[in-house]
Amino acid sequence: MPSISHPITYKTDADLKKMEEGGKKLAEVKEEVRNIVRDGTNAQQIEDLATKLVDKAGGEPSFKMVPGYSWTTCVNVNSGLVHGIPKETIIFKKDDLVSVDLGMYYKGFHTDTSFSEVIGNDPELSDFLRVGEKALENAIKEAVCGNRIFDISAAIEKTIVEANFRPIKALVGHGVGKNLHEEPEIPCFRQWKKEATPEILPGMTLAIEVMYAKGSGDIEISDDGWTISTRDGKISALFEETVAVTKERTKILTA
């Protein structure tokens, strides 16, 4: 996806109400899509269902608004990390690790969410995914007024590294709102000093994204110009939720 060029925006209560409504609808789409991630399903079927459900929800696919990208979803398997084109030839099988990224534009605002699932009951893969889920949970706890973006990044990195995995350093989470990708960038590691990162303030809406791998965490882009995978072929995963920050609390919009 393109680099972030839109500044931080602070949403009004009315804006947040629209994003909350859109996020709830996207969460419902996500769960229906998750239900068909199984042995024998192909990535095009994920795409077709997501497209149908987003339309039924009264939204538009966010990712189709990205110049050059023509799909509702990004679907990746095993070493695939992000931006995978959902092709019919990608057929899921037992012990695959499947990651799906979804975004929806609703009433003038985007929300963005991702999940990873293992097909079958491989305990090692299940443990790998639990680390990512915990990293996202810990990161969201830090997304509160008075903290800084550094605190979110530090929570992700600490959780991932303590499990002997590696955060992806070349990709970031981001702000989200009227534009799919807004400032601030939210790295999965402590890239800058704390005071150099933006303070978290009321009205911020953030797409917090945990991206990590079993290997080095280095990435490469495939010949299709979109699909990003681990360079060493080791498995990777991502988990993402859109959250809204208010004075009272931080609310997950896409769960």
From TrEMBL:
Chemical reaction(s) catalysed: Release of N-terminal amino acids, preferentially methionine, from peptides and arylamides
Record GO biological process: proteolysis
A Pfam family: Peptidase_M24
E.C. designation(s): 3.4.11.18
InterPro entries per the UniProt record, alphabetical: Creatinase/aminopeptidase-like, Pept_M24, Pept_M24_MAP, Pept_M24A_MAP1
Cellular compartments per GO CC: cytosol
Keywords: Aminopeptidase, Hydrolase, Metal-binding, Protease
Keyword Lyase: no
Cofactor note: Binds 2 divalent metal cations per subunit. Has a high-affinity and a low affinity metal-binding site. The true nature of the physiological cofactor is under debate. The enzyme is active with cobalt, zinc, manganese or divalent iron ions.
Co-factor(s): Co(2+); Zn(2+); Mn(2+); Fe(2+)
Peptidase M24 domain sequence ranges: 18-247
A single GO molecular function term of this UniProt record: initiator methionyl aminopeptidase activity
EC class (word): hydrolase
Top-level taxonomic group: Bacteria
Similarity comment: Belongs to the peptidase M24A family.
Function: Removes the N-terminal methionine from nascent proteins. The N-terminal methionine is often cleaved when the second residue in the primary sequence is small and uncharged (Met-Ala-, Cys, Gly, Pro, Ser, Thr, or Val). Requires deformylation of the N(alpha)-formylated initiator methionine before it can be hydrolyzed.
Protein name (record): Methionine aminopeptidase
Gene source species: Candidatus Woesebacteria bacterium RBG_13_36_22
